Automatic annotation (TrEMBL):
<keyword id="KW-1133">Transmembrane helix</keyword>
<keyword id="KW-0472">Membrane</keyword>
<feature type="transmembrane region" description="Helical">
    <location>
        <begin position="51"/>
        <end position="70"/>
    </location>
</feature>
<feature type="transmembrane region" description="Helical">
    <location>
        <begin position="134"/>
        <end position="159"/>
    </location>
</feature>
<keyword id="KW-0812">Transmembrane</keyword>
<dbReference type="InterPro" id="IPR001646">
    <property type="entry name" value="5peptide_repeat"/>
</dbReference>
<feature type="transmembrane region" description="Helical">
    <location>
        <begin position="76"/>
        <end position="96"/>
    </location>
</feature>
<dbReference type="InterPro" id="IPR051082">
    <property type="entry name" value="Pentapeptide-BTB/POZ_domain"/>
</dbReference>
<protein>
    <submittedName>
        <fullName>Pentapeptide repeat protein</fullName>
    </submittedName>
</protein>
<feature type="transmembrane region" description="Helical">
    <location>
        <begin position="108"/>
        <end position="128"/>
    </location>
</feature>
<dbReference type="Pfam" id="PF00805">
    <property type="entry name" value="Pentapeptide"/>
</dbReference>
Length: 630
């Protein structure tokens, strides 16, 4: 049972080393000055808790702040403070790079340097701004310097230099104070917070709840804040949050308010952030990392999610209507259950095309409940092989066949080819669940690049008469010549790139491991499909039915074609028969063109005098013409 500390006075308590605080309840507790360093606080409840400095530390910090502010009221003291600060900071920063023993030995040097700096400051300030009392310089300039020096010594022991420098630089960029004063101030405040403030440094705060908690002067440095809830948290801007996603001011504002509408979060690291039920409509997350984030029930309507990383992200119940998901990085661990989405865009909008590649394609059609997850599912287990220059179809065919044969456990199967720009192509292959896609991709491109460097004659020696390689080579070549895509599959699905995938051409054999159906069964299916086509009205001019019937007979009776390739060829005839029901429809024409290309690939390598080659040379051009393909 989780421990209950709710409403208790826990000021200054040391919880370091406790093993029993998972799920503990600290709601409404006073935890000022408490130490939770490196403690497991998963699912702990700190809602409405009061963290930060205890009273005596707060008073000390207030005095120093007054001194630092008052020093800015005198021109002469500003000169003193700047010179002394520069000397002390320069030496202390060097010292802080070493260990505690080295820092101690520099104590004397720092003291002497500070004294010399104050004397020089007195002389220069008298010249620049008129005479001032030694007491004024020492009190107003020396006390803050001395306290800052103590902060430097503390930092030399406990680190945090990177966080201090970055915070100080941010204050300088904002035009608040000079860099030297900012560093001194940050060092002192860090020493104060680390000594007297509430510390969650390196704690595990996964799923912890800080709703409406007061967090001024609290140290969250290097803590695991995955899925922590910060809604309505108070004074988080005054906490130490280095090495967490809270470092960016816009992220802190987002997690506190839950309002990110129309905001820009491009390229930010938001890994593990909790944005449950947040308003993110019209927000931009281009190139951002939202992996493992909690986006349950979040409103991402019209959000720009181009190249957004969403590995392990929970989008359960989220709204994605109108979102732009170009090249977004979802995986099979991305949770999409119950996603609300009426339509989606596959590309970012432009002035020329404000609604790029909408899905569903028809603007009057909308996804029904559950449709979006089914629509996007094919991407989960695909290997995407993108070729961006000098595409070599033969090298692609050989490299993919080699990869499939070397990794039968991956069950590689080509599902799509898409032309992307001039001489660029994306080859997408389905893989078995759990396949190491990074390793497969690296192995493929190593092989592809070596093959690409070979001469045409050397490549031909590797190909010999392997019709699977020849078929795939022809398919890649066709995909490069067509405006958009070549694809395969016996079911209608949708490609994430926004291209509708349709057809029934089968390239499982290329992937190695696809089983060949019974030849008689396939032939019977072809006959059924042909019988559904209308007869030609002119006996002197054979139509699609008659030409395909002749092609079926030529394939079945061929003595030169092995049974496995007869089966593949007959499947293409069946695809042509199905497309022949609506031969002028664009999608059917694309299916027909793909099937004809496949048949040409299968026939390649047969003896020139083979009867099937002669039949193919006669029938395929006539079939293409009836489909309006030339």
């Amino acid at each position: 049972m989780a421990l209950d500390f709710s409403g208790q006075n826990l000021r200054g308590r040391n919880f370091k080393g406790r093993k029993d605080l998972v799920g503990a309840n600290f709601s409404y507790a006073d935890i000022r000055g408490a130490n939770f360093t490196n403690v497991n606080l998963r699912k702990a409840n700190f809602s409405h808790a009061k963290a930060g400095l205890q009273s005596h530390w707060a008073i000390s910090a207030a005095i120093v702040t007054v001194l630092l502010v008052s020093s800015a009221l005198s021109k002469s003291v500003i000169v003193a403070l700047l010179i002394a600060s520069l000397v002390v900071i320069s030496v202390a920063l060097v010292a802080s790079r070493y260990n505690w023993a080295v820092a101690l030995t520099t104590n004397l040097v720092l003291t002497i340097a500070g004294s010399i700096a104050l004397i020089l400051a007195l002389i220069i300030s008298a010249v620049v701004a008129g005479p001032v009392s030694i007491f004024s310089v020492v009190l107003v300039g020396g006390v803050p310097i001395f306290l800052a020096f103590l902060g430097f010594i503390y930092i030399a022991v406990f680190g945090s230099r990177g966080a201090i420098i970055s915070t100080a630089r941010a204050r300088v960029e904002a035009g608040i104070v000079p860099f030297s004063i900012a560093v001194a101030d940050e060092c002192f405040k860090t020493a104060i917070i680390n000594t007297g403030g509430t510390s969650f440094r390196m704690a595990d705060l996964t799923d912890a709840n800080f709703t409406a908690a007061t967090l001024k002067n609290t140290n969250f440095g290097s803590a695991n804040v995955t899925h922590a809830c910060w809604l309505q948290a108070q004074k988080l801007d005054f906490a130490r949050v280095y090495a967490t996603y809270l470092e960016k001011p816009q992220v802190r504002e987002l997690v506190i308010t839950g309002q990110g509408q129309n905001k820009n979060f491009d390229d930010l690291s938001l890994r593990g952030v909790n944005l449950q039920a947040a308003n993110l409509a019209d927000a931009s997350f281009i190139g951002a990392d939202l992996s493992e984030a909690n986006l349950q029930d979040a409103d991402l309507s019209r959000a720009k999610l181009k190249q957004t990383q969403l590995d392990g992200t929970d989008l359960t119940g989220a709204t994605l209507t109108g979102a732009y998901i170009e090249d977004w990085g979802i995986t099979n661990t991305t949770k999409l259950h119950g996603v609300r989405c009426e339509y989606i865009f596959m590309r970012l909008p432009t002035k020329e095309d404000p609604d790029p590649l909408r899905k569903p394609d028809h603007k009057k059609e909308f996804f029904k409940d559950g449709d979006f997850a089914d629509f996007i599912k094919p991407i989960f287990d695909t290997l995407d092989l993108y070729h961006n220059q000098g595409v070599d179809p033969r090298a692609i065919a050989i490299a993919f066949k080699n990869l499939a044969e070397n990794h039968p456990e991956a069950e590689l199967e080509i599902v799509a080819m898409e032309k992307r720009g001039e001489d660029k192509i994306l080859l997408r292959a389905k893989t078995a669940a759990g396949s190491d896609k990074s390793q497969l991709s690296a192995e493929y491109f190593d092989d592809y690049n070596q093959l690409k460097a070979l001469s045409q004659s050397q490549q031909l020696l590797l190909v010999e008469k392997d019709k699977r390689i020849i078929s795939l080579e022809n398919m890649v070549d066709t995909a490069l010549k067509q405006p958009k895509f070549y694809t395969q599959g016996d079911t209608n699905v949708s490609d994430i790139s926004g291209i509708n995938i349709q057809g029934s051409s089968n390239v499982n054999g290329i992937a190695g491991g696809g089983s060949v159906a019974n030849l008689g069964t396939i032939s019977g299916n072809v006959s059924i499909a042909l019988n559904q086509l209308p007869d030609s009205p002119d006996a002197e001019k054979p139509g699609i039915k008659e030409l395909l019937t002749q092609l079926q007979e030529a394939i079945s009776q061929s003595a030169d074609l092995p049974e496995t390739e007869k089966a593949e060829a007959l499947e293409q005839v069946q695809a042509l028969a199905e497309a022949g029901k609506n031969p002028q429809e664009s999608t059917k024409q694309k299916t027909a063109k793909t099937a004809i290309t496949m048949l040409k690939g299968i026939f390649t390598g047969l003896p020139a005098i083979a009867s099937l080659v002669e039949a193919g040379n006669k029938l395929l051009p006539a079939i293409s013409k009836l489909f309006g393909l030339g």
